[in-house]
């Protein structure tokens, strides 16, 4: 794929929207203890493969440079959620969760890998180290090993790297595919189709045609996968950790209609997860992440190319949302990374570490020794968990 490996005064406008990160020394001086009931909490990780354009999901409509960079591709009527940012109009149910204090968007986040290869970025995000080949197992699998009990479930055709290494306490499930179709072959073919919006939708529909329809309609897509994961995790003895993945987020051409459809599916998926978790929702965190962001400006085919700084969403009844998290670097020429894309200001591992310690109840020592062994200097996310 041609795109695969290619790739002051304004600084005073730098906005620290939320003091989300504190000194790492606080963790050493005051190690956190597992909260009461932490053994009954749930974490669902949703990985959007292909590089979600965070500036399209959460357009900074009041940022002076935004309209000029996006031209006709700027989101025309975002759902304004604060004085700078809005949610894409397809995210209406998510906007309601934001207003209910159950959705926390995190801006300018990325794994420590800051280049532009899908495969290397996803590998780094899933293995939980600072390099694409830093580990042969995944950080969620190592998390399962570090927990005193509990299972993990991937709603995926093949076991994702993120959950490898979790031994017999990790399983994966996917609806039966037609007999001639090899799930591993589908996984290998997907990146070849994802770059072309005309082919990606057909590929996803065809790949899911052997899946389990919901109410007799449609293929087994992201909303159905998130619903199934939530329902299985909601049981008293259900998995405490879940994983769902979705492809088709690579938006090099005609981005607006492609992401209109994909963001609507994500919005439906978050609502389906809330419904599926039911009574367990107040004890749940859903983390939506992607391997990198996109270029700040549109390219010549009304799309965006591979970038660095992206965004993440923390959602759930356990999340103290209703505000924007992270350190917004701005979109001015001197503020962009290499003059082309949003600069990442937050390492995703800092977000994951805080979720494991504050929500799942792992100790700081276990997280920094076993789950993210080279992350001791990363400050944790603060003040995001509902008391």
Protein model, in words:
- The chain is of the alpha/beta class.
- The chain has one domain: Alkaline Phosphatase, subunit A, CATH 3.40.720.
- The protein contains 12 helices and 11 strands.
- The strands form 2 sheets. Strands 1, 4, 5, 6, 7, 8, 9, 10 and 11 form a 9-stranded mixed sheet that branches. Strands 2-3 form a two-stranded antiparallel ribbon.
- Helix 6 packs across helix 12.
- It is globular.
- This is DUF1501 domain-containing protein.
- Pfam families: DUF1501.
- It comes from Lysobacter enzymogenes.
Distance between the termini: 47 Å
Q: Approximately what portion of the residues adopt beta-strand conformation? A: 5-15%
Fraction in helix: 25-40%
Please tell me what the overall shape is: globular
User: Which CATH first-tier class would you pick?
Assistant: Alpha Beta
What is the β-strand count? 11
Structural class: alpha/beta
Main sheet specs: 9 strands, mixed
Order of helices and strands: HEHHEEHEHHEEHHHEHEEEEHH
Number of domains: 1
Number of helices: 12
Task: Classify the fold: give the CATH topology.
Answer: Alkaline Phosphatase, subunit A
- Per CATH, the architecture is 3-Layer(aba) Sandwich
Specify Rg, calculated over alpha carbons.
Answer: 19 Å
Protein name: DUF1501 domain-containing protein
Pfam family, one: DUF1501
Summary keywords:
387 residues, alpha/beta, Alkaline Phosphatase, subunit A, nine-stranded mixed sheet, two-stranded antiparallel ribbon, globular, DUF1501, DUF1501 domain-containing protein
């Amino acid at each position: 794929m041609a795109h695969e490996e290619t790739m002051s005064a304004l600084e005073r406008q730098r906005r620290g929207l939320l003091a989300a990160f504190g000194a790492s020394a606080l963790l050493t001086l005051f190690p956190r203890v597992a909260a009461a009931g932490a053994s009954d909490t749930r974490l669902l990780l949703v990985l959007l493969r292909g590089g979600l354009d965070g500036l399209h999901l959460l357009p900074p409509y009041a940022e002076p440079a935004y309209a000029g960079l996006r031209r006709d591709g700027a989101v025309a009527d975002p759902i304004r959620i604060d004085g700078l940012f809005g949610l894409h109009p397809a995210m209406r149910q998510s906007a309601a969760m934001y207003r209910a204090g159950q959705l926390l968007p995190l801006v300018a986040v990325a794994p420590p890998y800051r280049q532009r290869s899908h495969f290397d970025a996803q590998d780094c995000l899933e293995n939980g180290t600072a390099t694409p080949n830093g580990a042969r197992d995944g950080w969620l699998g190592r998390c399962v090993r570090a927990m005193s009990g509990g299972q993990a479930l991937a709603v995926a055709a093949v076991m994702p790297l993120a959950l490898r290494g979790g031994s017999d306490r990790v399983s994966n499930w996917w609806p039966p595919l037609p007999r001639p179709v090899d799930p591993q072959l589908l996984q290998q073919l997907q990146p070849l189709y994802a770059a072309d919006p005309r082919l990606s939708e057909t590929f996803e529909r065809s790949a899911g045609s052997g899946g389990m329809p919901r109410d007799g309609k449609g293929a087994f897509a992201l909303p159905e996968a998130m619903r199934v994961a939530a329902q299985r995790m909601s049981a008293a003895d259900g998995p405490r950790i879940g994983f769902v993945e979705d492809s088709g987020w690579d938006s090099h051409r005609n981005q607006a209609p492609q992401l209109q459809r994909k963001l609507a599916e994500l919005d439906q998926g978050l609502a389906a997860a809330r419904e599926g978790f039911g009574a367990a929702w107040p004890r749940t965190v859903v983390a939506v992440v992607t391997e990198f962001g996109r270029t700040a400006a549109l390219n010549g085919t009304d799309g965006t190319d591979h970038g660095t700084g992206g965004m993440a969403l923390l959602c759930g009844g356990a999340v103290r949302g209703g505000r924007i998290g992270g350190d917004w670097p701005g979109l001015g020429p001197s503020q962009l990374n290499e003059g082309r894309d949003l600069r990442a200001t937050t390492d995703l591992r800092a977000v994951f570490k805080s979720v494991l310690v504050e929500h799942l109840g792992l100790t700081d020592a276990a997280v920094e020794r076993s789950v993210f062994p080279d992350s001791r200097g990363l400050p944790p996310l603060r003040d995001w968990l509902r008391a």
